[in-house]
Amino acid sequence: MRLDSTDTRLLLAMARDPRRTVVALATALGISRNTVQARLAQLEKKAVFLSFERRISPAALGYPLMAFVHVHVQQQQLAAITAQLAGIPEVVEAHGLTGDADILLRVVAEDAEDLFRINKAILAVPGVERCDTNLAMGELIPFRVTPLLERGDAED
């Protein structure tokens, strides 16, 4: 799916100031309010927007520790394993991988002891063979798409 220059400009404006109203976006971009609303509806329909949850800090909820867990599983049980991992509240993200590990989990914890408990819960899932856990020391580059939008806008 390619976005046109109006969509890209709209997304850039939203990325720079996500609290802008539709009217403020229309004014800033020099297009009508109805056009902005229609474009936003189309972008939402195309699943361009991620969930609002991404903007909530786990640390603010009492989970300051973050770790990445590489999970090695029995492939034929992947769907069942994924469903069980989704039942662990501290698992905030999961990705299927190629390479040595099968699943990469981002987990949050209250402290090291809590992380140990979470690792035990992951290992207790039937079909999980082993885990390798790496503690995140700090976020060096936060999740971002603005550079991609800017590059796409420059190409148009």
SSE pattern, N- to C-terminal = HHHEHEEHEH
The main sheet orders its strands as 2-3-1-4
Residue windows where pLDDT falls under 50 for at least 5 positions = none
What form results from the Cα inertia axes? elongated
What is the makeup of the main sheet? 4 strands, antiparallel
Give the helix tally: 6
Percent of residues in beta strands?
15-25%
Can you tell me about this structure?
Strands 2-3-1-4 form a 4-stranded antiparallel β-sheet. It contains 6 helices and 4 strands; from the N terminus they run H-H-H-E-H-E-E-H-E-H. The longest helix has 13 residues. Helix 1 runs antiparallel to helix 6 and helix 2 packs across helix 3. By secondary structure, it is α+β, with helices and mostly antiparallel strands. It is elongated and about 55 Å long. The two termini are 15 Å apart.
Provide a brief overview of the structure.
By secondary structure, the protein is α+β, with helices and mostly antiparallel strands. The chain has 6 helices and 4 strands; from the N terminus they run αααβαββαβα.
Which characteristics define this entry?
alpha+beta, 156 residues, 6 helices
Layout: helices, strands, pairs:
Blueprint (H helix, E strand, L loop, with lengths): L4 H12 L5 H8 L3 H13 L19 E9 L4 H9 L4 E6 L6 E7 L2 H12 L4 E8 L10 H10 L1
Antiparallel strand pairs: 1-3, 1-4, 2-3
Helix pairs in contact: 1-6, 2-3
